[in-house]
Design a protein that fits this description.
Order of helices and strands: HHHHHHH
Distance between the termini: 32 Å
Helix content: 55-70%
Largest sheet: none
Number of helices: 7
Radius of gyration: 15 Å
Structural class: mainly alpha
Number of strands: 0
Amino acid sequence: MIRVDSQFIHSEVVKPALSLLAEEGFSGASEEFRRAHEHYRHDRHGEAIADALKALESTLKTICTLRRWSYPTNATAAPLIEIAASNGLVPEYLQSVLAAGLPTLRNRMSAHGQGPQLVTIPEYMAAYALHLAASNIVFLVESYRALR
């Protein structure tokens, strides 16, 4: 079950992302993206943000595997985006945009210990992460399809 906060974003971005990830080869990314939505539905915002980035990274790893582009197995978003740009999947001028959005949000909001003060992640931040992940996934998979 996917929570729907914005009908437009859901129909134009989230549903297409889910559909594209249902294609052969993207099952890891699909499972992570669905899990991110499940966390969001249950107000586990940090986990939703973390799994949204995992889905993006898995999408990139899947594309690299399908295109036979070498990447380290423990590669994070930034090097995967660099590999995608260097192989023509995305224009190099968009590399910094992809690397700055969701990875930065995850690093700042949910990746590291919160320290002595309790950190509450607002719902709108988790929603933003999910929508950003969906938008990036659609962009990357459509770019991959255009390279075939």
